[in-house]
Structures are given as structure tokens and as C-alpha cells.
Design a protein that fits this description.
It is a single chain. The longest helix has 32 residues, at 79-110. The protein is globular. The protein is built from 14 helices and 17 strands. The N and C termini lie far apart (57 Å). A hairpin with a 4-residue loop joins strand 3 and strand 4. It has 483 residues and is of the alpha/beta class. The strands form 4 sheets. A 7-stranded parallel beta sheet has the order 9-10-8-12-13-14-15, with helices on both faces. The chain has a 5-stranded mixed beta sheet with strand order 1-5-2-4-3, sandwiched between helices. The chain has helices at 4-9, 17-24, 48-55, 79-110, 132-139, 167-171, 174-181, 209-213, 235-244, 274-285, 322-330, 412-429, 435-444, 465-472, and strands at residues 43-44, 58-64, 114-120, 125-130, 144-149, 152-154, 159-160, 189-194, 220-221, 260-265, 271-273, 307-310, 334-338, 359-364, 390-393, 397-401, 405-409.
Amino acid sequence: MFRQSRFQAHAVGVALAALVAFFALSGAPVQADAGPDAAAQAEVAPGLRAELMTAGQGTYLAHLRAQPDLSAAYAIDDWRARGRYVFDRLRQESHASQADLLRLLERERSGGRVRAYRPFFIVNAVLITSDVAVLDVLAARSDVARLEPAATLSVPPLEPGTTSLAWGVAQIGADAIWNVYGSRGEGVVVAGIDTGVDAAHPALAGQYRGTDSGSHDFNWYDPHGATAPFDNVNHGTHTMGTMVGDDGAGNAIGVAPGARWIAAKGCATSSCSTEDLLAAASWVLAPCPIGAEPGDASCDPDRRPHLVNNSWGGAGGDAWFQGAVDAWRAAGIVPIFSAGNSGPFPSTHGSPGDYCNVISAGATDSGDVIASFSGRGPGAFPGCGEKPDLSAPGVAIVSSVPGGGFAAMNGTSMSAPHVAGCSALLLSLDPDLTYDGLRALMVDNAVDLGAPGYDGAYGHGRLDCYAAAQNVAPDFRMPAAMP
């Protein structure tokens, strides 16, 4: 559950402080301010009103109807200009369109009908804990598009193990790329939204961008205030290890050990709240100094990563995170998600991995057999039923865990980092690759397993990163003898 004090700190902003002070004096009952088109009613998720009636109060997201047009970002070639454009447009739209709603919420917080609230610029939504009377008022407002319950998502547990060259790294041909092309992901920054990372782990310390800068500013974010990277669950350290891990002592666990990593702790425990995930997503779009909240003027979109791994999710067909993904895509960040562990039946692929504009991964074992737990397609959203996009190693994957050790884990949480690491290798070979280019390279060169072509278990096949690399730079070969 989010904390009221953190919400109040940036519930309205400095520009609205005087208005908030005025409205806070009023103890009048809630009144709808529907705006110019009172006929426009918000969509209320089934069961949400009944939940608040039963519990007295509940937490939900109010999505604003106004959404900025970010399409112009795709025509901006300059990396810095593109990120700044997206960041500024989102902030401007949210500040303008949320102002009236935030005044109402602050007034009702003073009257006790709202317990807490927090605005988000990345999806132009406000996370609210209130009674049903406030929910009803919001449902009647023309500026509110939909009201949906706050989600709680999860990550799976770990199992012990040991390693040298991880079998998944070898199976997708990552080591062949290192040897033939001389590329290990240099120049690429990967982000992970997960349970945190042990930045002191020997397999990860050298790849942490904060090690290069000597500061955690712009490199680490915890919505609950921890000023240095940590992982109290193990999961995030494990997924990051599969992306970039290598301790230089024989434990080659990462697909792209030359890349740099940053991280946002979107999962406080093995559960991940709506609040923390949206805060983490906002930070990824424009990383911030330690102590600054996402969306602050001190946050810097120039420091954003090239790609972000998301080894978390929930039930399929849930569009609550779509705005965050759209913002990432507009800013040129490649989003990669796990398919979920709800298999083996059809239509068990989870969200947000089933969104049309992300790359999702199912899980295979060392014999190229799809894991029974791997979420299956088709996806729930029209026009993009061919989910997962592809599959990757996800059974008995050994990677780093806090404290300097290693452990094996099963899950599509392990598959997605293989795809993220491969994306880093390909971007290192060709920095001009876009999301569409990366996805096409990986999908078109995947090892076709299961039924010919796409199928709901393997997607378009098992990831073959080396084959994809050959189609990025087919004429390049590393010299026979390096100086």
C-alpha cells in the first residue's frame, strides 16, 4: 500500500499550492465537476464499486481522458531530443489535465473521503484511495476515461544452483557473437524493473553504470526511498545477471556482459504494486537523482536506457500499463516482457507481455521443449494475437543472487532477460536499430519449433541471437588475431 505522506508531497505541485490551501478549508460534500461534456461518463471496472462499498475504501487508478499525441517523436532522429520531447509532452499534458481533479482530491482528502492519492505523468492517471462516494463523483466526470482497481503482480521464487558458461547463453549463440564479432554489448544501457539488484555482486558490479560514475544518481530508484541498490527477494539480481552478468572468474551468466545496467525497484517484495510499477516506469523514461521523484525537473531523459526488461506480469488482456509502454516506445526504449507462468493451456499469456507493441518471451528447456508453465497464446488484444513473440531459455537458468552466489530458476522471468541481452548485443552491432528492426531480426531468425510458423507455445520460435547477428552485420568478422 502506498504512503499518504509521499502522495501529499507531489499531489498537486507548487503552481497549485495556493488553490489547494483554499480548497482544503472546505468540508463540503463531494460534488461532480463534469466539465463541458457531462454526457461523457467514465468506464468503471466491473466489481470496483462493490469492492469499495464492502470495504469502505479502496485503491484504484483514474485514467484521464486527455492523452498527448507522441507520434512526432518517431520522426526525431537525435536520441537526446527525442527523449526530451516525450518527457516534456507527457509532463505538460498531465499537469494541465490533472489540475482540476487534483484540487477535488485534495479537498476530499481534507474531508476524510480520500485517504491518499498520487498523480502519474507517464500514463496521465491518478492512483487514489477513497470511499465509494468519491468514486461515483469521478465516474461522472467528463475528464476521466476509466476507473480500474490497483493491480498487484508477482515474481516467482528461486532454487539453488552453480554455473560456469550458462547453457542459455550458449544455446542462443551469445558466446559466438562475442567470439566472432568481438561485441559483448558495449555502448548499450539496459534497465530492469524488478525486485532490485545487488550492485556489489562480483558478476554485476563492473557493469553497473553507477560504478562508472561513482554515484547512484540516475542509476537506481526505489519508490520507498532506499538510496543505494539492494535486492531483498533475489529475483532482480537473477534477471540482471542473465542480461549482463560475468564475474571474470568463469561465471559467464550474462548474454551481454559488456553492456551497462541501471535498475528501478518496481517490486517491493515478491509482489509488485501498481504504484511502484508506474513510478518505476516513469523513472525509466527519465532517470532522476537520488531523492528526486520521477517527473521532477531534475530528472534527465538523456540518461534513459536503450531497453527495459520486465520479468513480471499478471492476467492477460489488462491494458492498465499500456500508456507507460507507449511512452517508452515513443522515447525509443525497447520494452521486453515475460509471457507469464500460467501455461500450459491456450490463451494463458499474461499482460503487459500481450500488448501489441512489446516483445514477449515464452520459456524453453535445454532440449528446446516448451516449458509446461510457459504462458500460451493467442494474446487477448485484437491485431496482435501472435503472442508470445518468441521463446528463449527459461528452465534451470543459473544466474546471480544477492551475496555473491548463484542459483537456478525456472520461469518466463528467465526467458525475457535472454531476449533483452540479445537486444543489447544487436544494438551494439548496429546502434541505429529500432524496435521494429530488433523484433524482426529476432523473430525472423528464430529456430522454428512446434507447429510450422507461429504457434501459441513457442511463438515464432526459439531465440537464435547469433543468426540474428549474422543478418545485422553479415560482412563483418573479427580479425583472426587481435593485437
